[in-house]
């Protein structure tokens, strides 16, 4: 309905009731939020329903959200977000251009929509004053910076960039001329990593009228355009960075190239892991607002997960906060603020809240860093738990009234049934103020003054004070790792150990951080108890830090290695050690060639804490240890078995736990105990492969591949122990009864299932039940389009995995392709030994070997050669399909190099599956690539993240079959059959 002939004002009617029907009771912001979750086709249809719905459905901010949600590949802005979205949906140009001029209607008013429209077109000329209170310092020394500002307060630094080429070359015109065709990542409200070519982004900046414009915020610019790194240098004040010891692919994002137009910016946040940051502006003006640690800005909601401590925040856009919230603040509640000018560098200390608004088109570069001042804070933030993470960000607002006498907690809302972003996790939401778009908010002067008073109390951003809020009962190796942590547990442990080796002068500080992040002191006391009991040399101060990247504390002593089992809790640990000891017993009994490539076991047992001291109980895996407080946990164990915690008991335990967790949506964690199994093995001389990966020659890599093929053959030829009926609950002694008691298994086909097949089939079925949720939680780089298709790709009945073979007699039925599976042959579990050889190939003596350099010639032409010597860590042993051992080797050790995989298979010489059966089944079950892909999808670890990181082109894959054949097709080409 065109408004060209509008009736006189007296005749105007309110359209809302008739145009929206039952939806009229919803606030406008709720209607807009609902529309954002619809498809573009549905939004286009709704625009035809009524005049008011037409207004809602043609809002540019709505089409911006729709566009960013469906965008794949580099984005090109077409002058409006609706046109851009329709182009992405492949709507013909003639329909886009001939859609007619926009219609307007009288009789409908929306303060929400008006304010959003105002933000889209407002200018910021009035914001560029600098009445701020951030100090400006010129030519500051490192000593002065550390004494007055580092870890204490922000400061604007002048003169640090005078020699940078970027001071003159980083302009929009020059960058467009040099890098116009280079794609940069965009930071905006999308879970997808969206990019734009620089020339297209500049065109967008000139055309857009967005309330929160797209913002180049690229942490990969150094890889995309390496020459940009030559245009600036890290100021001397910030040269110390403890994250530098990590490899580039392991290091969390730390530097960003930033370009944004007027009205763009970064909303309120605290930098990841409580790192500090410096930000240098090269072009334009930025307005900064900052609050000290623990003081949550007005309008911001902090979400703290009570199980893993993950912290997320809801915050208005930078522009919205300045327009709608800043005017509500009393003078004493206003933030520290300043206007940053070209050439100035602002320092933001650890834990400080900050918000940035670009007053005009800006270009900047920023880096986050960890130094000796904030190192303990970073370790604290990475520590599992709940309270301390919330306290670091929200101060006393994160603490219940029972936890802090005298603290005002009227603004703390504990909504245990809600969650952000995962509805299955308990969460505490810490609200400063519920901002309202309607007119009543204009009447509020500072309705949350009570909550703002909290920060004025004795909250101290001091490490000793913050540590007091740690959950002392948590085993940090056991607790869930926060999804928001900037690095994973594996990288965290490797980081601390690399610092320990690389910075011996800082070991006291590193030890303090390790005690926070790893509970290192607790495990060190256990180590001392083991050494004293076994009359081993007491560990020195330099040997007190656990080594490696695994999930259990491991200690390297001069002649032995001590491993303490803690991962997953007591039951998981007992099954881990029990299975490992069962395997070593079998290995010795059958005199397998593999035995010489597995470290010798010197001792094993259980260390437990009782009556104020640690005690030791030797245990060889046979029988059930008699320790108080242990019997109830072990009630399901059958003492009739020689190895009651052996491999099939372990498989059954993991199946039972997985089924329970699947039904209860709980975490796979057993509560903290004071009982820990341990094992002592002989120490191997040499280095693990992870330390040598980048130094090995191609010949040495080929040698490693052939070694792994031969040892996998030896491993898989070992007799897999038969399952003992007493291992299974009585209801599982018959196949039909077992299947009837478990959900998710197709019982329509009656076959002579073995108990082993039953356990493995059920385990896969249970894992499938939660696979979509797991993949969604992991998220990027796993394509969301594939996550939606995962249930259709995986088998409906996993028994088909074991129906694709026949035995030597030709009998069609369920086969038993089960072998001992290491399941964790990765770069830290392959040990390499060295020999020194001359350039003529002859070996050198040991003195020459010790003086030579790794893979380099020195003094007479000798070089160190590395060859594989041992396979380590058999605690993840299981019985299963042989292909399970190929997956970690191919992805982690070979990094997807198919030529190395072919060498391994040539030396392996065993079939990865038996001959195909004449039983009629789908063809895909006979493809090794399909089976491997299914196991990758169902793995508890984020294997898919590694796959889509190595094969980046597969992020645009249309189907799982495409991914399967690209990654695992080599198995089909080299399939070994009996």
From TrEMBL:
It holds the Pfam family Cupin_8. This is F-box protein. It is found in: Nucleus. Residues 20-66 form the F-box domain. Its cofactor is Fe(2+). It comes from Linum trigynum. One of its GO terms (cellular component) is cytoplasm. Belongs to the JARID1 histone demethylase family. PANTHER family: ARGININE DEMETHYLASE AND LYSYL-HYDROXYLASE JMJD, TRANSCRIPTION FACTOR JUMONJI, JMJC DOMAIN-CONTAINING PROTEIN. The keyword Nucleus applies. It comes from the Eukaryota.
